[in-house]
Predict the 3D structure of the following.
Amino acid sequence: MTTPSQATISLESLRFDNRFIGELPADPLSENYCRQVFGACYSLVEPTPVNAPQLVHYSKEVAQSLGLSSESCESELFAQIFTGNKLLPGMQPYALCYGGHQFGNWAGQLGDGRAINLGEVMNPQGQRFTLQLKGAGKTPYSRHADGLAVLRSSVREFLCSEAMHHLGVPTTRALSLTLTGEQVLRDMFYDGRSKFEPGAVVCRVAPSFTRFGSFQIFAARGEKKLLQQLLDYTIRTDFPHLGEPCREVYLAWFSEVCVSTAALIVHWQRVGFVHGVMNTDNMSILGLTIDYGPYGWLEDYNPGWTPNTTDAAERRYCFGNQPQIALWNLTQLANSIYPLVEEAEPLQQALALYTEKFAGGWNEMMATKLGFKRFQAKTDDKLITDLLQVLRLLETDMTIFYRQLANFEIDKLDLLQTSDEELIAPLLDAYYAPEQLTAAFKKRIADWLRSYLYRLRQEGVTDAVRRMQMHAVNPKFVLRNYLAQLAIDKAESGDFSMIAELLELLRNPYAEQAGKEAFAQKRPDWARQRAGCSMLSCSS
Ligand code: AMP
Ligand code: MG
């Protein structure tokens, strides 16, 4: 998806080649009612028609990857297709069967309860993309729910998918955000105060939407043949470089999932992203960020923070727990493919590889955030440990802190002569209550800065070069929770301009962007306790 073509085609010329449903067994029943689906990877199901499809916004990069022209994306037909009202020739809609552990407990069959895949597009360069509508109506996996999505959560998914991509974080993409013209009843905080909200659909795009839970469901049901069929298919399609599926290749595959998951979590920790619901059904086997629900961005650096009110008591999925939760989830995936491997040792080795890759990746990531070419355990272990304590002395905005760190001019500084006050001045912007910085706090920060700047000097890089390198990994602009909420507030009143504005801003999260400084500032005080800004739930 990184090399969009300039050549464009119309919607009608999109070429579909639906391998998944061509090669894997379907639910024999075609009626659309909720049930346990056995012996199948998916159910064929049509999206539910809606009243008044309306395009809110689309991602021009994703459209380009598919080869679609802007005229196609702005056409009435586009809104009809991507709300699920019309199908293009070659589309064969289906919902996937998967299971998962939710908050640590096995939940049995989950599946695409409100996602419907339209098919697999081959773009003019021969790349493949699965198109999936989120919020297009009930499927056999909808359980007790309505299969719909509301504007608020769809704006969040649309903007964040694209923002993550531009930050360099692996993610599913979002082609479009549309309104259905229908009202959807939601109890946002499960407190009995339901209200109607505008219905919306996001068209998500990824090479595949296979999850850890896609394998778990067959293992849990003892459907070993199906488990093997799905794994063989996954290896042939998403991991063709591993060769023909066999026991050794299953292990190589699992190792690769461990490695890409480690890389993903390193990215999340780098940019301050908290997924919020790291259930095993929300883990992509491609190491992509998937299922944007009650996610959030760290404002003040607090490893215990989670945006998800449903998880407020346990904080299972808080920022600081993400690395170990990913390992827990990988362990469940290992258990589910065990029947095909029948030996624990190599699976454990792959899990150990996750731990090793995460630790190494995290060290290197922290080193680059700090402007070091390489991580040097001898000095940097302590520097980083101390830094994480300094960041927790007082409420400190993580994004601003790292961005400002790049602005020190070490060539000019006399580390011994400069007072604590002067030394820490460039960082004050990152503090939510700078007046609470006591002399003792200032000394801690200044002491850390002195050791840090001393270490930087050994790199022998000019201030300008180092600033450029640090700015390339420490974003200036992230989708701050309150910014997304402001865009939602406007969109709910019919004004979509801020969605477009944020998408444009977040296309270049590492650039300075003159005139856009307001978007890089600390969360305003009003947003501290506002629903949607710091508190979200799974209700979407
Ligand atoms: P999530 O927390 O969004 O990952 O969803 C967990 C499970 O609940 C998945 O199987 C979803 O498909 C299903 N689900 C969530 N919201 C809805 C909804 N409004 N209608 C039907 N199924 C849903
Ligand atoms: Mg999910």
